[in-house]
Amino acid sequence: MCKGLAALPATCLKSAKDIKHRIGFLLQKPDPPPDQKALKEKAPEVKCVESVDVEKWKSSFNNVINNEAGQAAFTAFLKSEFSEENIQFWSACEDYKKTSADKRPVKASQIFNQYVEMDSPNEVNLDSATREKTRRNLLSADVTCFDEAQSKIIHLMEKDSYRRFLKSKLFLELSQSPVGSTRCGLDRGVKRNLSNSSHLLPFCA
């Protein structure tokens, strides 16, 4: 065994450097291909978060994901739980439905390879039957291609993540803001004593 840096022979030092280089290489996470990068959704920018909107989020998950500010807040929460692929997949499916028929086959394949395929970069939690049915749907790539898969992920978010979101520090800070107050654009950057996630939605000055 090699003991002490001063006593290390050149061959031992070279081996150590080689091992360090290999470990460093393995730890590097390769960037996804360009088409997959394009599918990664950014959290929507928020112009304002009205306290009345926050109250609506309590009553229905649909009020969260169909509201620009709600979607941004929920995305921030999912990121804190390392499960943002679910809202990204939902958003990609919504965008797919608006895609022209001639561009759907390519886009459908990209979404499948990004989120649905086993061991895909942002794989969502789907049962094997839904996964295979979605794979077959790629042959026609019609507007309903991802409907079943998207429905499963919506149900998962509503029954699981949404309930935790309503109990999260982020949501509590939003709901406890003074009546009539507003949280505004991400570029304002007003500093408050908020959680790591809620700083994405600062109060108006």
Short overview:
The protein is an all-alpha fold and 205 residues long.
Written description of the protein model:
This protein has ten helices and two strands; from the N terminus they run H-H-E-H-H-H-H-H-H-H-H-E. It is 55% helix and 3% strand. It is mainly alpha-helical and 205 residues long. Helix 5 (68-80) runs antiparallel to helix 6, helix 6 packs antiparallel against helix 7 (104-116) and helix 6 crosses helix 9. The protein has a two-stranded antiparallel sheet. Mean pLDDT is 77; it is low at 40-47 and 184-196.
Our count of helices gives 10
Quick check: average pLDDT? 77
What's the order of the H and E elements?
HHEHHHHHHHHE
The separation of the N and C termini measures: 64 Å
Instruction: Report strand order across the widest sheet.
Output: 1-2
Helix/strand structural class: mainly alpha
Quantity of strands, as a count: 2
Beta-strand content estimate: under 5%
Largest sheet: 2 strands, antiparallel
The helicity comes to 55-70%
Low-confidence stretches: 40-47, 184-196
Mind telling me the C-alpha Rg? 22 Å
Shape: elongated
